[in-house]
């Protein structure tokens, strides 16, 4: 075989979009030497493509993932990446179902699956290295180190945004910094650059003019991972709440997942979200049943006992684990005295009705908080 024929064709790699996750994942792949084909961030076209080629009752996140794949394949991708956790819920069937649909549509591709029941971190490194066609340990360490730092950086600016936005005096100031920060984090080529970026953007956040005396209620957000982390899917609920003068808190963050799912237990000393949730949910649920069900119940109890004024639970239509959560949450609400609202999302969710429900909930918790304050004073 000639030397020319021995050179492997570089794979054009794509993966599903979910909020900010593409920034660190793209970084890792590029640093490993892979050619990344990035589909557009989730939008109406992505959703339409996914809906058109899916059966109606399948999970909402699957429809968006499928739309991402179609857009990426049309842009020239030939290798698709996806996580899979078989056995717990329909998440275990995403890759098989999507592969069948895409093959039937005539696309030629290789689906590379990270089986999260296998060795997790080892499985991720193995599959990333495979698609990037490298076994260079130094390259692998450096790529993952920078990618992981970006996961943490993105969470840090998000948390800062949650705190600053409801208190800002000029609407939109913190949002502008956040959007700029995302771009800068995306562009950072190494840890030194990233550190500089973070120093600069955190200082910018701190310089936003805010009302320090404002009594800001806290709403804890919980629910299914994808709808929580993808602003297109949840119709930017965090922005709506922030602009209504509400501070958002949530435990389900990108880095949280990174630590609890990917990091071997040996290196992970903190109490995991799952462990905390299992403890707090114990009165209402004895064991995890898949998805983020036990996390949602645990978060509701945790929020009530840690000064949150309300809890919003987000779930995709027909999501089995979150249907169970929805049926338990009224009991938690009564028992823990915390207002709870469940919102279900799919392609038919109307924006106007959705926002009206959030506004009504915000009014309710503001009145409840004011009443509580008056009773304490009296
Ligand atoms: S958690 Fe819910 S939405 Fe996500 S894959 Fe499972 S059933 Fe579908």
Following the backbone from N to C, one meets helices and strands in this order, namely HEHEHHEHEHHHHEHHEHHHEHEH
Share of residues in strands: 5-15%
Q: Output the strand order for the largest sheet.
A: 2-1-3-4
Mean of all residue-level pLDDT scores: 92
DSSP, total strands: 8
Bound molecules: iron/sulfur cluster
Provide the CATH topology of the largest domain.
Rossmann fold
At the first level of CATH, the class of the largest domain is Alpha Beta
User: Roughly how many Å is the radius of gyration?
Assistant: 22 Å
Number of helices: 16
Major sheet description: 4 strands, parallel
Descriptive terms for the model:
378 residues, alpha/beta, Rossmann fold, 3 domains, four-stranded parallel β-sheet, 8 strands
In a few lines, what is going on in this structure?
This protein has 378 residues and is of the alpha/beta class.
Describe this structure in words.
This protein has 378 residues and is of the alpha/beta class. It folds into 3 domains: 10-135, Rossmann fold; 140-211; 217-377, 3-Layer(aba) Sandwich (Rossmann fold), CATH 3.40.50. It has 16 helices and 8 strands. The protein has helices spanning 3-6, 22-32, 44-52, 60-74, 94-104, 121-132, 137-164, 173-187, 191-206, 225-229, 237-243, 254-262, 273-281, 293-305, 320-336, 351-377, and strands at residues 12-14, 35-36, 79-84, 110-115, 218-223, 247-249, 310-316, 340-345. Strand 3 (79-84), helix 5 (94-104) and strand 4 form a beta-alpha-beta unit. The chain is globular and about 75 Å long. The structure holds iron/sulfur cluster. Residues 59, 61, 89-91, 224, 291, 316, 319-322 line the site of iron/sulfur cluster (SF4).
